[in-house]
Amino acid sequence: MPDPYTYPGTNILINKFDIRDGQLLTEKENDLVYINLVTAEQYLSGKEFTVDLLKKLHYYLFGDIYEWAGQFRTINIRKAERVLDGMSVEYTDYTLLEKETARIIAALQNIEWEHLETEDCADTFTKCFAELWKLHPFREGNTRTITTFMLSFLGSKNIDINVALFSEYSSYVRDSLVMASIQPYQEYQHLYKIILDAMTNHAEPERMDNSKRQDYSHINDYDVKEYHYELFETEE
């Protein structure tokens, strides 16, 4: 089945600037989304965290570059992951996205976050974060959208978390999400490590006490610095 999101015969996403070079498109996307990420927390402030808000956030971040921003994908996707020796996470079938996203966000809302101790809060948040991320509801921009959504949700519950840590170690965060999504052999400990650290150490990454700083350079034997972005493929 041809991918309706890409230019025919390529894996380059159709975009508002008609950029047909993959590297140039990535650079343009990163520049535009970075600007929107700066104001995303303000955009989300005071809003109810729902499926509709997740879609609106995706549009807020990516609407400058993609016509389909804010819409759930209509095709199944896969991506070869170095941290999985070239295998892909089994992302949720596109026909189930509305139902599964609503289920996970409803469960997120039903948790009594204010009654959890820090370690339990980090553990619960880790599993909720990974479960929502595994859906990958959009054709592109899932990690940035879902990370922003989840961290802002936590802030709405008056739980302090060091957001800067996730930006500083974005490759580690993404690869740890991958490892937490390889059912039925999920490895939550990598994601849990940075979430717990972010909840207990609020200093900017460069000002952290070295005795408290975690090592975010490796996940098992995989060097996170080797990460480079791979395009999604569609399932035939």
Tags for this entry?
4 strands, two-stranded antiparallel sheet, 236 residues, EC 2.7.7.108, nucleotidyltransferase, 47% helix, Fic-like fold, nucleotide-binding, ATP-binding
Would you write up a description of this structure?
The protein has helices spanning 22-44, 51-62, 97-110, 118-135, 142-156, 163-168, 170-179, 189-200; strands at residues 77-78, 218-219, 222-223, 233-234. It is mainly alpha-helical and 236 residues long. It has a two-stranded antiparallel sheet. Strands 2-3 form a two-stranded antiparallel sheet. It is globular and about 50 Å long. 31% of the residues are buried. The mean pLDDT is 92. It holds the Pfam family Fic. It catalyses: L-threonyl-[protein] + ATP = 3-O-(5'-adenylyl)-L-threonyl-[protein] + diphosphate; L-tyrosyl-[protein] + ATP = O-(5'-adenylyl)-L-tyrosyl-[protein] + diphosphate. Residues 49-197 form the Fido domain. This is protein adenylyltransferase.
